[in-house]
Structures are given as structure tokens and as C-alpha cells.
């Protein structure tokens, strides 16, 4: 059966970080019935976004296993877009190392009770996890570790981007730990997550090439916590990361979802079965 005959109506939400607004438009998509992968919190299904000329874009649709609120999906999207902002800043250093994060949006399936999902382009190949959000190092690759270290300095000690995984140097599904532990989804472990990264991080040649301050892994937990608190107090006057901007983006997203759902069809929803 042609893809278009199996398609359903969806609303695609895309965030514009330059003017802090979410934009939405209607698209038609086809979602596979069965997941092809499953993680700790979400299942992944192949999705095809149909274009007006008949072509289609292969994508990955990600849905939380347990019922959750709309905010979780927009948290995931904003987290990944924040990580991409740091990736762009990293690439502006004009070294031979480059990183990127896949673009991600939120889609509402209008014919499935307004079910939300995160959608990103489908990359073919074997994904590799380099580090997680609990301080564990999974590979010997130096660039992912150096990038996480870089985000700590680039954010003026406000956050780190970790849980680095993907294909080559193109990453997806990052996690952000922030000093205050707010925003960035349920995986934000706050100061504890930052401490766990630096307890296992060993500066490598890329860290050195970027002239990142070396970390002392022998520092006790209490001393490190005190250092983090001092960094917070020292940098509150002019933080690199604007948490208010994140909050404004989330508020706009919730308003759009509420308005959109008033007009969605109420059909049985069985997206994750």
C-alpha cells in the first residue's frame, strides 16, 4: 500500500531559538506499528513525514513508555536544541574537531487523541553511547568526554551536556545537568550529576588542546559541592545560560499544545503497543 494511503494528520512543533517562539504547521505522517528499538524510558518507531511532491523523509519517533505530561516532550526537544547550541559554539573554536546534535521537534498525532512524540531524522548505522548521565564512561573516544568538559566551561559553570551517544560525531538524546537541577527533563540530576561526571573524567589531549582547566578527581564530594556552590554565586550576575529563556520557550509550547488539542479527534490511542 502506498505510504500516502496509510498517512495520518499531525501537527509539527518547531522551536526558533532566535526569537524564542514555537512554530506549528500541519503535516502528514506514517508511523510503523511496532517499535524497532527501546531504551530505559522511551520506545522508538520509524516514521515517515510526507512531502507535497510525494517524497518522504525517514524519521524516528520516540514515545515515553509510561504516561507523562506534555512538558516532558518539549523538555526533550529543548534539551537537545540547547546541546546543539553548545555544539555550534564548540565548532566556532575552529579546531579540527566538530560535533553536532540531530535536530528534533515535537509532533502531535491529531488522530490519536493528540498523542505527542519527539521526532528526529533517521540515521542508519550502529549508535554508540560514549558516556551516560551517571558519570559512567562507555568508550575510549576522547571527543565526547572533552565536549562535556567544554560545556561546563562554556556555560560558566552552570551546566554540563552529557549522555553523549550517536553515530560518529553526530549525537542524539543528550542529558543536561544544571546547577539548580531545574528544566531539561527528569534526567537532570543537578549538582550530583555534575559531580559524578567530574569524578570519572580524566582530561585528555583534546581537553588540553582546548586549554580547558584540568579537573582534580581526588577532590572529596563535599569539597566539590562547595566549589560548585561558589561557582554558582560567582556567576549569577551574568550567566552564560539563560534559564529564563528556557522557561519562556516551555510556556509558549504549553499554550500551543492546549490550543491545538481543543480541535483534535478523539480516537482510540494505541501508540506504544
Topology (elements, then pairings):
Blueprint: E1 8-16, E2 21-31, E3 37-38, E4 42-50, E5 56-64, H1 70-91, E6 100-101, E7 105-109, E8 115-121, E9 128-129, H2 142-154, E10 159-162, E11 165-167, E12 170-172, E13 175-178, H3 190-200, H4 205-209, H5 221-235, H6 243-261
Parallel strand pairs: 6-12
Antiparallel strand pairs: 1-2, 1-7, 2-4, 3-4, 4-5, 5-8, 7-8, 9-11, 10-13, 11-12
**Largest sheet entry:** 6 strands, antiparallel, barrel
The count of β-strands is 13
Number of helices: 6
Strand content: 25-35%
Class inferred from helices and paired strands: alpha+beta
Residue stretches low in confidence (pLDDT < 50, at least 5 long) are 264-273
N- and C-termini, Cα separation: 22 Å
Any overview of this molecule?
By secondary structure, this protein is of the alpha+beta class. It has six helices and 13 strands. It has a six-stranded antiparallel barrel. It has a four-stranded mixed β-sheet with strand order 6-12-11-9. A two-stranded antiparallel ribbon has the order 10-13. The longest helix has 22 residues, at 70-91. The radius of gyration is 20 Å and the shape is globular. The chain starts with 7 loop residues before the first strand and ends in a 12-residue tail after the last helix.
Amino acid at each position: 500500500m502506498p505510504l500516502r494511503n496509510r498517512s495520518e494528520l499531525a501537527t509539527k512543533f518547531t522551536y526558533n531559538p532566535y526569537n524564542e517562539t514555537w512554530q506549528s504547521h500541519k503535516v502528514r505522517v506514517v508511523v510503523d506499528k511496532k517499535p524497532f528499538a527501546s531504551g530505559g524510558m522511551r520506545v522508538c518507531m520509524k516514521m515517515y513525514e510526507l512531502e507535497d511532491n510525494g517524497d518522504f523523509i525517514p524519521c524516528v519517533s520516540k514515545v515515553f513508555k509510561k504516561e507523562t505530561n506534555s512538558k516532558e516532550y518539549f523538555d526533550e526537544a529543548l534539551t537537545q536544541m540547547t546541546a546543539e547550541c553548545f555544539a555550534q559554539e564548540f565548532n566556532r573554536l575552529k579546531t579540527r574537531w566538530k560535533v553536532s546534535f540531530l535536530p528534533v521537534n515535537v509532533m502531535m498525532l491529531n488522530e490519536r487523541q493528540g498523542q505527542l512524540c519527539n521526532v528526529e531524522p533517521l540515521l542508519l548505522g550502529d549508535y554508540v553511547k560514549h558516556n551516560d548521565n551517571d558519570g559512567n564512561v562507555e568508550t575510549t573516544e576522547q571527543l565526547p568526554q572533552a565536549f562535556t568538559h567544554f560545556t561546563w566551561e562554556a556555560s560558566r559553570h552552570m551546566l554540563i551536556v552529557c549522555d553523549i551517544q550517536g553515530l560518529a560525531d553526530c549525537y542524539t538524546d543528550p542529558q543536561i545537568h544544571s546547577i539548580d537541577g531545574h528544566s531539561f527533563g527528569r534526567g537532570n540530576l543537578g549538582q550530583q550529576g555534575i559531580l559524578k561526571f567530574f569524578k570519572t573524567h580524566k582530561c585528555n589531549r583534546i581537553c588540553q588542546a582546548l586549554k580547558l582547566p584540568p579537573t582534580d578527581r581526588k577532590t572529596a564530594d563535599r569539597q566539590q559541592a562547595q566549589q560548585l556552590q561558589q561557582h554558582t554565586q560567582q556567576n549569577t550576575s551574568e550567566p552564560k545560560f539563560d534559564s529564563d529563556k528556557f522557561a519562556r520557550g516551555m510556556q509558549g509550547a504549553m499554550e500551543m499544545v492546549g490550543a491545538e488539542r481543543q480541535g483534535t479527534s478523539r480516537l482510540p490511542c494505541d501508540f506504544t503497543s
